[in-house]
Amino acid sequence: MKQPILLSTPTMHTEEQCYIREAFEKNWIAPLGFNCDSFEEEVCRYLGQPLHGVSLVSGTAALHLALKLAGVKRGDIVLCSDLTFAATVNAVLYEGGIPVFVDSERDTWNMDPVALEKAFERYPQAKAVMLVQLYGTPAKMDDILAICRAHGAVLIEDAAEALSATYRGQQCGTFGDYNVLSFNGNKIITTSGGGMLVTKDKAARDKAFFWATQSRENEYWYEHKEVGYNYRLSNVCAGIGRGQLLHIEEHKAAKKAIYERYKAGLADLPVQMNPYADGDEPNFWLSCITIDPSCAVDPISVLEALREENIESRPLWKPMHLQPVFAQYDMVYTEEAAVSADLFRRGLCLPSDIKMSASEQQRVIDCIKSCF
Ligand SMILES: *Cc1c(COP(=O)(O)O)cnc(C)c1O
What is the pLDDT of residues 157-196, one digit of tens each? Predict the structure, then answer.
């Protein structure tokens, strides 16, 4: 069997172990602790804005607390990116919210501002917008922000895939009223599993911390006035994150080099790389292609050819409006048919692991070429 080439796996350095060792030496193995505090500060400093963070067990937990902070209650409408991972939408349902899916545009594959405006015409009472920065490519933030402001809606930014990407010089994960990061094993940096909620609002940060620590009141005994959650990140895992954060720019540069090699290597084929706008700097978390509509090659046949070579690839996220679990919810399009579904039908995520060598990547490129 040939050496496997994978989509995106953790890349470790040496500093992670130093922070973990310190946690062991101090016997600080609990959720909470100095690594959590420092990780929160370091991430906020990296984001370059006056922000407050709370480190959590997952990006999904951060999404859940973001929806609570946004005040989403049973029956409230939340306008959501349609082309995303299901975790984005599951969090809306945890709070009894009603997702309405908003289609993608073709320039960045993110939420289409034109469709968002239409969604507000249909649902003027919508409480919040859940915007995903897909595959680490920034959305059209100026338009999205203006629309949210005009309609008085809370913006939650799901930047789980987009840490280190910038939109007109501003870091993703800083645009929303509440911003969500993920440090799952496949993301650009990892804590093995983890996430962070980031906000400019210190009181909101403290409230999220309170919920995440079982809503425990400040008494000698365990006093509870609200439902709580056990969502805090372990001090050991936060140590991994601190070590990883030191290398994030390196990870981003390596991801970009992978994207550029695919772009050059596949230039003669009827395929397009995942697009981004001028002035934006994606983090290139995953390199993706779409096969031109005029070409009969099916992405699944490419996936199967790659699999024969022990190379992992995956279709784009299957749009939420096509998921059986969310079939009952409404969807707002710009074009006649859903752009998200069109991208899904023609798209494929390619191996984007930063430990992949140029010669291994050439194996991927050669295999893809053999399908056309
Ligand atoms: C990974 C991811 C999440 C969930 O993050 P976890 O840390 O795995 O819970 C949410 N949204 C998007 C878009 C993601 O890619």
Answer: 999 999 999 999 999 999 999 999 999 999 999 999 999 9
How much is the pLDDT for 160? 98
328 alpha carbon to ligand 1 midpoint, in Å? 23
Q: How many other CB atoms are found less than 10 A from the CB of residue 117?
A: 17
Spatial neighbors of 231 by CB under 8 A, at least 6 apart, are 56, 57, 58, 61, 64, 65, 211, 212, 213
User: Edge-to-edge strands of the sheet including 128-132?
Assistant: 52-56, 195-199, 178-182, 154-158, 128-132, 77-81, 98-102, 331-332
Distance (Å) from CA 63 to ligand 1 centroid: 9
The CA 72 to ligand 1 mean position distance, Å, reads: 20
Q: CB of 158 closer than 6 A to ligand 1? A: yes
Domain 248-370 has CATH 3.90.1150.10: yes
Which residue is it, tokens 């919210």?
Answer: 97
* Domain coordinates in residue numbering, the chain: 15-245, 248-370
DSSP 110: S
Class of domain 15-245: alpha beta
pLDDT digits (tens, 9 = 90+) for 258-278: 999 999 999 999 999 999 999
Whether 157 is in the pocket of ligand 1, judged by its Cβ within 6 Å, is: no
CA of 30 to the centre of ligand 1 (A): 24
